[in-house]
Design goal:
The protein is mainly alpha-helical and about 80 residues long. It is about 75% helix and about 0% strand. The protein has 2 domains: about 5-40, no CATH class; about 40-75.
Length: about 80
């Protein structure tokens, strides 16, 4: 595939994509900027951080090993 054809295929894929986190990563890569840490996380990872922040605010805590095990199960 030549360069022009590759560009056209990329544009088609971008226009049909609904995956916001992927599009944010592609945008950052094309702009040559370091992507925002938060945008590089999956929705599950973002949710875990939100839960953790709420737990800290309310005085609750959770062992790192439990968090790691739960996240490992989600990605499997």
């Amino acid at each position: 595939m030549d360069l022009q054809a590759l560009k056209i295929e990329l544009v088609k894929e971008i226009l049909s994509s609904e995956r916001e986190e992927l599009l944010n990563k592609m945008y950052a890569a094309l702009k040559g900027e370091k992507a925002d840490f938060w945008l590089e996380l999956t929705a599950d990872e973002q949710e875990e951080i939100k839960i953790s922040r709420q737990q800290v605010k309310s005085g609750q805590s959770e062992e790192w090993s439990d968090v790691y095990e739960r996240l490992s199960r989600k990605s499997a």
